[in-house]
Amino acid sequence: MKTVLDQLRDMTVVVADSGDVTAVKRYQPIDCTTNPSLVLVALSDPASEEMIVAEIEAGRKAGLSAPALTDTLTVAVGARLSGLVPGRVSTEVDARLSFDTDASVARARAILADYAERGVVRERILIKLASTWEGIRAAEILQDEGTDCNLTLLFSMAQAVACADAGAYLISPFVGRITDWYKKAEGVDGYDSLQDPGVNSVRKIYDYYKANGIATVVMGASFRNTGQIKALAGCDNLTISPKLLDELSSEVADLPRALRPGQAHAEPHKPITEAQFRWDMNVDAMATEKLAEGIRDFDADHHKLTQIIAERF
């Protein structure tokens, strides 16, 4: 019998939630991702040391500041990963730009230009933006220019509908972070997979998209355990950490398909206005709190990464 991971690959695109070159080589995912948190991990990866040293030296010779070098290093890690996977590399726009549409678009274009100089074409890249109203509008502009986007830090149906309206290529609903919030709010230790709020949020979005013929890819993210992953088997994409990939690759058991496009049922799609989006987010304490927390955390890791680079610089 196949391992659970091999069975999952038969029905879902498996993405590595890692910038660790060693892990990507081992698990051979279709796609992978980078963000400040994952680049921090890459800094301690021996397989990336030569590349990091070379980037820092090149930045020094070019007269780059530590913040500017942080941006180029993120792209350098992504370019390295693009040579290891056949699909896409998601690369994040700075979290501090999450409420500035024009600055987000400008940064995305700069990321693509940096990749182009390294010989990586835009078709291999997904620009990763926070699912704020401004981030979604930036994605709309970029999609019109032919640049595919990954809308991240997604916690609500309001965000999912707005992303669909914008023609986003892919969304990343954060399963584990939703579950974490409800565990704390309800004072419980955990949930059965079928009652898990994070799992059910992705199921609802998946059904809404498929029932309405929305082409945007649904990629479940931020998993806390393999049970959550199994409960979403059949989702378009799932981005999984090396630790959980290892667990799935070690388990031999039958994996039934949980999600199927032909079995999806949902209310008809209705475009969402900015006023409705902001109201729906306002009344959803979980989505509002987790989105703000996620942006703060990514920004904190960006500053930490810049500080480490400055010390090595």
The number of helical segments is 14
Helix content: 40-55%
Mean pLDDT: 93
**CATH H-level superfamily:** Aldolase class I
CATH fold node name: TIM Barrel
The poorly predicted ranges are none
Shape: globular
Task: State the total count of DSSP E strands.
Answer: 8
Major sheet summary line: 8 strands, parallel, barrel
Gyration radius from CA atoms, angstroms: 19 Å
Strand content: 5-15%
CATH class: Alpha Beta
Named CATH architecture: Alpha-Beta Barrel
What is the number of independent domains? Answer: 1
Description of the molecule:
- With 313 residues, the chain is α/β, with parallel strands linked by helices.
- It has one domain (4-312): Alpha-Beta Barrel (TIM Barrel), CATH 3.20.20.70.
- Helix content is 55%, strand content 12%.
- An eight-stranded parallel β-barrel has the order 1-2-3-4-5-6-7-8, surrounded by ten helices.
- Helix 5 (66-82) crosses helix 14 and helix 7 (133-144) runs parallel beside helix 8 (157-165).
- The N and C termini lie far apart (51 Å).
- The mean pLDDT is 93.
Summarize it:
With 313 residues, the protein is α/β, with parallel strands linked by helices. The chain contains 14 helices and eight strands. α3 runs parallel beside α14 and α4 packs across α5.
